[in-house]
Amino acid sequence: MSILINDAKELTKKIIIMIINGVLSFYIALHFTNLNFAYITLGLVFAISFLIENILLPVLIISSIVVSNLNLLEEIINGIVSFPNIEKIAFLLVFLLIIPLIHLAIRRNSRSLITAGNLILQNFNPTIAAILYYSGVSFNESYVDGIFSFLPFIYLLTVNFNNHVILESIILILIGSILYSINSKFYSVVGIIPITISAYYFSTLFNSPYFFYGIILSLAINIIDRVINFTKTINENREATANLKNRINEEIKNIQAVLYSLRSEIGKEGGDLIKIIDGTFSSISAIQNKLNECKNINCLSEVNDELLSQKRILTIEINNLIFDKIRGYNDFTLKLKKIGINLSEIEYPKEEIKLEQFIDFYRHLKQTIETNIILATNLLNAFVENTNKTIGVNLDKLNIINMNYISERLNNMDVQILSKKLDLCASKALEVIQLFTEEESYEIKKSLADIPLQPFTINKVGNATKLLEKLNNFLLVELIELQNTLKTISTIYKSAEIDNMISLINIEIQTLQTSEMPYCEKISRLYSSISELKEAIELANNKDTLTQLSELVDTLLPQILETGEINLSDIGINENYANFIIALLNKKGFKAEINGNKIRVGINTKE
Q1: Which of 94, 102, 344, 536 has the fewest Cβ atoms surrounding its Cβ within 10 A?
Q2: Do residues 454 and 562 both lie within one domain?
Q3: Is residue 570 domain-shared with residue 521, that is, in the same domain?
Q4: Same domain membership, residue 419 and residue 492
C-alpha cells in the first residue's frame, strides 16, 4: 500500500514535469522549425517524459536558456563581453540549473526542477507558467525539500532587483513553502495564504489573472499530497501495529518455548527458579490475553514493555543460575586440588546470556561439569582403591556421581591421618629394604625416602602403591633366595635356630604372597621381625665360611678326639662360630660344650 501511495506522489510530479517538458519542447522546436514539426516534437517529448522526465527537463532548461538568450550569447561569442551579460548567464545557470540538479542528486527530488522549469516557461507561455507557478513549492514534504524548491525563485531578484513587489512576493513564497511542509494533520494548507498574496502581487505585476488558477492548483497539490501522506501514515501505523502485534506474538511463543525447555532441562536442580518459571508462565498468559484485546499502537507498546520486563526478570534469574552453578563447580575443584586432582575451572561468561541462548549454553555447561565430575569420580575411586590396597583403611568407592556427594566424602576423609600412615609405612619399608644391598634396591630406597617429603595427593598414593608393589616383589624374591640359602646351611648344621629362621622367613613369604593384605600391613609384619631377618641375612651371607668351617672340623676331628677339646684361638676361628662347631660335633654324635674360648668334646653319643 505504501508503495502505491509513493507512486501517486511521484506520478503527480511526473505529470507536471511532462507538461513543462512538452510545452518547452514545443516552443524550442517552433523557434527553429514550423508549427507542425513543433506539435510532433511536443507529443514525442511528452511521451518520452513519462520515462525519463528528470533527464529531459535539465536538457530542455539549458536549451530554453540558449533560445531565450541567443543575442546575449552571440555577443559573448563575438567577443563583446560585459559583466552584466556574464552575471545574467551565471545567475541563470546557478538558480535554474545547478541548484535543481544538486537537489535532484542529493535528495532524489525533482521539485526544484519543476520550479526552474516554470520560471523558464514564463518566457514562452506565461499562461501555463502562471498556472503551474507554485506547483514546485506546494508538496507536503520535508522542510529541506521545500526550501530547495523555493531557491530558483531567487533568480527573479537578479533581473528585477529594485522591484520591492518581487522581493515581497518571493519572501511570501518562501513562507508558503515552509508552511506547506508542516507535517501535522492539515495545518499545511495555511501555506495558501502567503501564496495567495504572492499570486495577487504577481498578477498585478505581470497583468495576468492566471496566477489565481495557480493558487487553486497549489492548494489542490498540497491537499492531495497531504491526503497521500496522511493515508501513508495511517497505513504505516496500521502496518506497524500489525507487525508489532505479530512480533509480540512470536516473542511470546519463543519465551513460552524457552520456558518449557527450561523447566524440562533444569528439573529439580532449579529450586527457586522453577517458581519463577511458573510465575512467568502465568504473567505471559495474562500478557497474551491483553495483547488479544489491543487495538492500537499505545496498547501494544504497553504490552511489549510488560513482556520485556518479564523477559528481563527471567534473564536475570537464569544468569544467576549459571553464575551459581559455575561458582559451585569452581569451589568443588578447589577441594579436589587439595588432594591433587586438578580439574580445569570454568570461566564466567563475559557477557550476559540471553534467554534464547540459555538452553544451548546450559546444556554445554552441564555436559562439561558432568564430564569433569565423572573424571574426578574415576580418579577418586582409583585413589580409594590404591589407599585400600596400600594403607588398608577400607574406604568405600564412590557410587554416586554428584558434586555434593563427592564433597561430603572428601570432608569425611581425614587426609592427615592417611598421610601419616603412608609416611610411617614408607619409613618402615625403607628400614626393611636397608637390610638388602642388591643394586636393584637402590632405586626403591631413594623413592621410599622421597615419599614423606611429598604432600598427600592421589598421585602420591598412586606412586606409593606402585612402589610398594615393586618392593613387595623384590622382597619376595630376596626372601625365597634367603630361605633356600638357609636350607642349604641347615643341611650342614643341624640347628633349631636355623630352623626357626627358615620357619619365620617362610611365614614372611606367605605374607608377601597374600594378595588381599595391604602392602603397609605386609611391611609392618616384616618390620616387626626386622632383627630376626637381619640375623638370617647375616647368616646367609656367611654361607661359604660355614661350608669351609665344616670341612675344617672334619679335618681336625682326630686331633679333637685325641685332645678332647678345640682351642678356637689356636685354629684361628672366631668365637661367634662356636655354636656352629658344637652343632657339627653334635650331628656327628659327640657331646660338646663351650668353655671360654675352648670347646670340650665328650664321648660319642652314637655308641
Answers
A1: 344
A2: yes
A3: yes
A4: yes
Contact 543, 489 (CB under 8 A): yes
CB-based contact 501:539 (threshold 8 Å): yes
pLDDT of residue 379: 87
Query: Residues 151-169: what's their mean pLDDT?
Result: 81
Contact between residue 573 and residue 537 where contact means Cβ atoms under 8 Å apart: no
Distance CA 91, CA 120 (A): 13
Check if the beta carbon of residue 226 is closer than 8 Å to that of residue 190. Answer: no
Comparing CA positions, the residue from 32, 31, 28 lying closest to residue 44 is 28
Same domain, 522 and 429: yes
Rounded Cα–Cα distance for residues 446 and 451 (Å)? 9
428-460 per-position pLDDT tens digit? 999 999 998 888 889 999 999 999 988 888 888
**Number of Cα atoms under 13 Å in the Cβ half of residue 45:** 25
If you average pLDDT over residues 92-103, what whole number do you get?
89
* Sequence-distant (≥ 6) Cβ neighbours of residue 164 within 8 angstroms: none
Listed in sequence order, the residues at least 6 apart from 566 whose beta carbon sits closer than 8 Å to its beta carbon are 556, 560, 581, 598, 599, 601
565-567 and 590-595: which strand pairing?
Answer: unpaired
Dist CA 311 CA 298 (whole Å): 20
Q: Which of 347, 377, 412 is the last residue of a domain?
A: 412
Query: Is residue 4 predicted with pLDDT exceeding 50?
Result: no
The length of the chain in residues reads 607
pLDDT bin (cut points 50, 70, 90) of residue 270 is low
210/488 Cα distance (integer angstroms): 148
CA distance 522 to 509: 10
- Report d(CA 88, CA 523) in Å as an integer: 121
| pLDDT of 78 | 67
Are 432 and 575 part of one and the same domain? yes
Tell me what the pLDDT averaged over the chain comes to. Answer: 84
Lowest mean pLDDT among 157-166, 231-240, 540-549: 157-166
Residue 605: predicted pLDDT:
45
pLDDT, residue 5, reads: 47
Average the pLDDT over each of 109-118, 230-239, 450-459, 471-480 and give the range with the smallest value: 230-239
Beta carbons within 8 Å of 216's beta carbon, 6+ residues apart: none
User: Is residue 572 a part of any domain in this protein?
Assistant: yes
Residues 445 and 434: beta-carbon distance below 8 Å = yes
Beta strands in 456-575 (DSSP E): 565-567
Cα distance between residue 199 and residue 376, in whole Å: 93
Classify residue 141: in a domain, yes or no.
Answer: no
The reply to whether 565 and 487 lie within a common domain is yes
pLDDT of 9: 73
Last residue of a domain, one of 412, 446, 472: 412
- Prediction pTM value: 0.60
Are 441 and 561 in a shared domain?
Answer: yes
| Tally of domains within the chain | 2
DSSP 399: -
Which whole-number Å values give the CA distances from 481 to 130, 195, 379, 469, 506, in the listed order?
133, 129, 38, 19, 11
Residue 162 in this model has a pLDDT that exceeds 70: no
- Is 321 part of any domain? yes
Residues facing 595 on adjacent strands: 598
**H or E segment and range at residue 65:** helix 35-68
pLDDT the model gives residue 186: 65
- Look at residue 120 and tell me if it is in a domain: no
**Could you list the residue range(s) of the whole structural domain that residue 487 is in?**
415-602
| pLDDT at residue 1 in the model | 45
Query: Helix H segments across 122-163?
Result: 126-131, 143-150, 155-159
